[in-house]
Amino acid sequence: xxxxxxxxxxxxxxxxxxxxxxEPKARTSWALWIPxxxxxxxxxxxxxxxxYAEPLVPTASxxxxxxxxxxxxxxxxxxxxxxxxLCRYRRAARFxxxxxxxxxxxxxxxxxxLWSDFPGVALKRWVRASGDxxxxxxxxxxxxxxxxxxxxxxxxxxxxxxLSILLIxxxxxxxxxxxxEDGRIANIGVTTNKNTLxxxxxxxxxxxxxxxIALFRENSRIGRQLIAHGxxxxxxxxxxxxxxxxxxxxxxxxxLGMILFLNxxxxxxxxxxxxxxxxxxxxxxxxxxxxxxxxxxVHALGRKPDLTGRTDLWKAILSVDFNxxxxxxxxxxxxxxxxxxxxxxxxxxxxxxxxGYLEIYINLGRIGLVFMGLLLAAGYRNVVAAFRSDPATGxxxxxxxxxALVYNFTEAAFRMNDPxxxxxxxxxxxxxxxxxxKEHAWVERVDPNxxxxxxxxxxxxxxxxxx
Length: 467
Prior knowledge:
This protein is mainly alpha-helical and 467 residues long. It has 20 helices and four strands. The protein has helices spanning 4-20, 33-43, 60-65, 68-87, 89-98, 100-111, 119-140, 145-170, 172-175, 194-218, 223-243, 246-264, 269-289, 291-300, 310-319, 336-345, 356-389, 391-407, 419-428, 448-451; strands at residues 176-178, 185-187, 442-446, 461-465. Helix 6 (100-111) packs antiparallel against helix 17. The N and C termini lie far apart (62 Å).
């Protein structure tokens, strides 16, 4: 069969699913396309990787320098995002005031450039990482932030999930690679490795579950959107299976269980939410305090006790000399002699610690972990507050918050341009409400032209800024 036929069918399927799930009442600005493109690139692969038949394994120098084309495209998106935020400076300022722990963490990351062995590289990486915060701010300063969040997930997921299936099944030179671990074929779809494919399917799959539950609760015209999100969920489940990413599958099941439990768990949901988070914290302490017992449990479940070489990597990383209080500087550990040393020890050329907390530690030290803990503590408070006010959306936010914490036990996702990190920032951020008060700069008024449409006209609101 010619690959042209399935390609055309995939394109039509994407358009059809987007048509089915459209929400004409939701109002978002054209500026939302900027974070959409940013998120799509973060959830797939760099532009330069699309120029080759298969993803490249970079040399040490390529890893340090990066790609000029990628810098150009991401820089253009960042510039556009900054222009948008300048036009929304009142809302942007309110967002930063409400989310000062996030701002404090990014500020410390910027300061850590000063003690990096490669300050130029560290600064470029921090600028690129600040693009994640820029895009999060654009999404959450939309006048209908929840609608903007939904559209980001839909646009990215409805594009990348079907495309991943297309590449795996009909373009194996792009959608598959040979695993350097055992020489077997690994399915990567639109991403660069199976773990990233698993993570994006986990995110989109959990979001689809959230939307399906919400549609059933609304009990009105759910047919077409249910078909759309149900189809994407089925695709995500298949991709999770073929990607064979154990962490992503386990985290998806954890998130699924939490969403269902928090939506149908009866009364005292907030208490149950606190108990779930406390249970996860106890498991984490158990892993840290009794690694031998943890390894035995993993072995009993049929997995390698060394977590596919991760424990050996962690020991090797901690044997490297660095400042344990301040770290090596933002995103600077995997550079220079340290990178060469670790690449000489491991055949898979590690570029991360495969543990988000350890990654923060080696780059930002113990002080960085404190700032990260402050961000997560404030984020948990925001998530619980959102759960109290809107249980349906709050259940998804709380589930993803816990999933992100667990995911980082075996993968390093607290870093720039990682989809887990971007969606974690979206999840934990406080969203200042629009109030009808002059000092908040925005008021809500009824549009008389839309009121003429009658009760079927929907939410007839527009917004105007007070001088």
